[in-house]
UniProtKB/TrEMBL annotation:
InterPro entries: RVT-Znf (IPR026960)
Domain Reverse transcriptase zinc-binding: 277-374
Pfam families, per database record: zf-RVT
UniProt protein name: Reverse transcriptase zinc-binding domain-containing protein
Organism: Rhododendron simsii
Lineage of source species: Eukaryota, Viridiplantae, Streptophyta, Embryophyta, Tracheophyta
Length: 462
């Protein structure tokens, strides 16, 4: 027939055509491809913004196609993520540099204090959900017919189960289906496809639910929504509804209009305004579901925090300065206190003034050597800088105090100088072996004054 025979190990559309026994091994080539990219980039000197773009748009996009077909093993996702994480924080000749923030937290969206790097497992599920949705929408395509014949010949895809020995593809798709179910509800048409007790179809104040029976019981007989219609008429059967549900639930059901045309019931994705599934919204849901409930004990209100991050990421200053602000607010800086906590310094005390622990607030504001810089900067801050206890709260109070003026041009210019000044106090020094002697001459420019915080502990004004 003129057909060639595929050799073992060959690929079609970037996916291997034959699978060995180990899924880990077969998909290992993806990690290799990402590693190769990262190795290439390591030769280049890159700022955080450049790295961020490469990670998001190139490295994390590599597995998109295979991830639309297969559920990756958790271990593989973790290995890929830790490769990327090492690239992000940088590597030294021996081992990697300090990872100041856990990868999981870098996965958080930017408005929550993370960097929005993809959580690969959540991304995987979001892509599988899209594929499951395609299977539902294209029931006449060959692949959907094959799957139906094999796994759910007598039911709808929504009711399909994994069966005794499901293939990898099928169990992967089902996981995508689970996500779709979590973010969707039913739009009642002829009511024939919707299970009254299991599916979300009743619209109440908090969203869509499956209505609870009047008498809670585990053994409610299966019932379709169409069974609640009057025989032969498109109207709710009041008597039936009264017998099965509480008065409140019953009246909510009867408020629902019934389709006159008797169209098919449809699943509606609840997280986009169009009701259509998007990988972005699916990822958002999958990511939320994987997050630990009580992450971090942050005393600041969530909305204030997200306002702070939004303001920072929208500042009209060079991106590397925004990254620097992000790092100081996340306390991801090699202060002596942080180094001491990681057993990289003998004492947490400031090497310049010796008066306090060298925390981020100390080194940026309270140290007598730094306070001098601010005093000469001519800035009018809402509260004296030498009393700054929490950099995060201080930034929030700055935003509150400046209010809308935060975005005014003159303020932007000041903000630029401010963050530049802070960058100046911290030149690129995240190595473990940082000591005051190795600091060199960090400098900050404030207005027309040039200051240097020198070793040993002098501030020089020019
Ligand atoms: Zn000090």
């Amino acid at each position: 027939m003129g057909m060639g025979i595929m050799k073992d190990g060959s690929k079609y559309l970037g996916v291997p055509t034959s699978w060995g026994k180990s899924k880990q091994e077969t998909l290992g080539y993806i990690r290799d491809r990402i590693m190769a990219k990262l190795q290439g980039w390591k030769q280049m000197i890159m700022n955080p913004t450049g790295k961020e773009v490469l990670i998001k748009d190139v490295a994390q996009a590599i597995p998109t196609f295979p991830m639309s077909c297969f559920k990756f093993l958790k271990m593989l996702c973790q290995k890929i993520s830790s490769d990327i994480c090492r690239f992000w924080w940088g590597e030294k000749e021996k081992g990697s540099k300090i990872h100041w923030i856990r990868w999981k937290e870098l996965n958080e969206p930017k408005e929550c204090g993370g960097l929005g790097f993809r959580d690969l497992q959540a991304f995987n599920i979001a892509l599988l959900a899209k594929q499951f949705g395609r299977m539902v929408q294209e029931p006449n395509s060959l692949w959907a017919k094959v799957l139906k014949a094999s796994y759910f010949p007598n039911s709808s895809p929504w009711e399909a189960r994994s069966g005794a020995s499901p293939s990898w593809i099928w169990s992967s798709l089902l996981e995508g289906g689970e996500l779709l179910k979590k973010g969707s509800h039913w739009r009642v048409g002829n009511g024939g496809s919707i299970n009254v007790w299991e599916d979300k179809w009743l619209n109440v104040r908090d969203g869509f639910i499956s209505p609870p029976p009047l008498v809670p019981s585990n053994g409610m007989p299966p019932l379709k929504v169409s069974d609640l219609f009057q025989e032969g008429v498109r109207e709710w059967d009041e008597d039936k509804i009264e017998a099965l549900f509480s008065r409140e639930v019953g009246s909510a059901i009867q408020m629902m209009p019934i389709s006159w045309t008797g169209r098919e019931d449809a699943q509606v994705w609840g997280l986009t305004s169009s009701g259509l599934y998007s990988v972005k919204s699916g990822y958002h849901l999958a990511f939320q579901l994987t997050q630990r409930k009580n992450r971090g004990q942050d005393s600041l209100a969530t909305d204030l925090c997200s306002l702070l991050w939004k303001k920072i990421w929208h500042l009209k200053v060079p991106p590397r300065l925004k990254h620097f602000l992000w790092r100081i607010i996340r306390n991801a800086i090699a202060t002596i206190e942080n180094l001491f906590a990681r057993k990289c310094a003998r004492s947490p005390i400031c090497g310049l003034c010796g008066a306090e622990i060298e925390s981020i607030e100390h080194v940026l504001f309270r140290c007598e050597w730094t306070a001098e810089v601010w005093a000469n900067s001519g800035f009018m801050f809402p509260s004296p800088v030498n009393r700054v206890v929490s950099i995060k709260r201080w930034m929030v109070s700055l935003i509150e105090d400046w209010g809308d003026r935060f975005s005014e041009k003159r303020e932007i210019a000041q903000r630029a100088i401010l963050s530049k000044g802070m960058t100046g106090l911290f030149p690129a020094q995240t190595e473990c072996e940082r000591t005051p002697q190795r600091l060199g001459i960090p400098w900050g420019v404030f207005g027309s004054s040039l200051f240097a915080r020198d070793v040993p502990a002098r501030i020089m004004g020019k």
